[in-house]
Specification:
The protein is α+β, with helices and mostly antiparallel strands. It folds into 4 domains: 204 residues, no CATH class; 160 residues, Nucleotidyltransferase, domain 5 (2-Layer Sandwich); 82 residues, no CATH class; 83 residues, no CATH class. 32% of the residues lie in helices and 12% in strands. A 5-stranded mixed beta sheet has the order 10-9-5-12-13, with helices on both faces. Helix 2 crosses helix 18 and helix 7 crosses helix 18. The longest helix has 33 residues. The chain is globular and about 90 Å long.
Amino acid sequence: MDVAKLSSEQTRAQDGLFVSQCNLLGLQKSLPLKWPTPAEMPASPKKRYRSEYVYAWQAALADPEQIMIWKDLPEFDLLLRLVDFSGLRPVLAHLLGWKTGRGWEPFDPVSFFLLVSWQIAHRWTRSQMLKNLTDERYCDYAAYFGFRRGVYPTEGGVRYFLTTLGQNSDAEGQTVTVEQGETLIQVAVQKLNLLLVQAVGIMRQMPVLSPTVWEQALLCPDGQIHDAASNLRCISVTESCYQPVTPDHPRLCPAKAKERKGCECNDRACARVCQHATPRDQAARYIVYTGSNQPSGNPNASTRSEAKDHEGGKARYGYRSLPLRLADPQRRFSVTLFDDVQPANGHEDVPSAALLLQLKLHYPDLQVEAVAGDAGFGYEAFLHTVYAKLHARRVVDRRRHQTDQDKDQWIIRGYDDCGCPVCQYGYGLNSYGFDRERQRHKWCCDKACLHGKNPRIQLPLVSYPPPDCPYQAHEHLHGRVISVGERFADASIRLVRDIPFGSPTWKALYHRTRNAVEGRNATFEDWGFKRMPVFGLLRSKALIFLADVLDTLTTLARLVREATLACQLT
């Protein structure tokens, strides 16, 4: 069979090491996989719960026939049998901010974690999930999660769980310092990433990842937009729209500042919050302007007289998740190492650079080979972090600038619109590879002017081949030779790439890692996360992090099932 036409599942089925080590019978002695609770994590201060999760399949692990039946289960059901989540209890108690055992008797946080994961996996609404929890058809799941018959959480309980997780994620004020030129930017650390780190730790308990992926890691961050649960009313809404207004302190309308009709905010409907804002999604933001004929009462109606007053694109109003993905090109799957959530209009480069800076703390043995990203990451903070802090290669799409269209500028600055060096006579230099130890990219002209090559830019008043070029002399064996490190000679970093942009190697690494992100985005859309099912940044953040954890764990379950089926065929 043509290897290039093999599906991901077929590729893994032909991996003998993967099949032999990751099938259910091969894992029997290692099951259940234990949730890796950090050694320094204190036990939960709560001693009694209204529910109690206990791993329910310990007796079945001794029977190979029962274990082999698991291969036919859905991914979520198989996951429940593969992993003992008891070690997650102190972690969730810490993330929920529980400091004392006094007070009310809560539900076991592991029960809530599994309940929300069950909801995500089945694409149910919160009310549907709670109704099914009480249904006799699902009484076995209620028992698996640790709920006692007739004692179930309410919608308010689920909201509390998500809200508190989101609220405590960055409540301690821990930050990471990102360098952006001479400016230092503080980015909040999200404690919810502990769940992702531990989920990846479960995956590393068994040899699901290929042997080389951790020593030559290929990373790719990206942003996915999630529409807010609230309906968009005003595209210009900002934080000031949610501040109370008084006669002494009038509210300035950001829509009017953009020459739109906006809102006067001078009546009782706007006293606390502008009537065109979305109080339950105060952090949601609009990211792309699309013009249209607006009704007279719409605050988005333009006050400009021009007939053409619009830009192309799709309007989105909500939040942006920023997963940092690890791609396994050999076994053709990927996992999320970290994540962050912010308003949709936030930049991706600085928070993603902060995630990269946290790798050494949570994944100290990870050796990063390359970091890929789209043009949105082609900024100083991100490119500098990849090069100077991770000592990895930058495989980032080019961020264009209007000066790139002027080829005369290429001669002046010394490089073209793709970051390829250009000599003073308009000839492009050839790449001689990247020196990993010295972290520099060597380029040579190879005396192209003497070998009948045409220049990239034909200069007026210059005869070709140029007789004045000093690099044509015999002592310059390869002609002009330059080395590019972090920046070009003009101190620009925007187009510097450690692999020539557009080369076969660049394309292979870029598409390999970009596919890792697109797979995660497709899963989230399938789970109904194109529009958030909950209100507010805090609940959205918690739900997105929990979904990323579930994505990692269900990927593990899927790979175990594939290995088991492939093992039966051999």
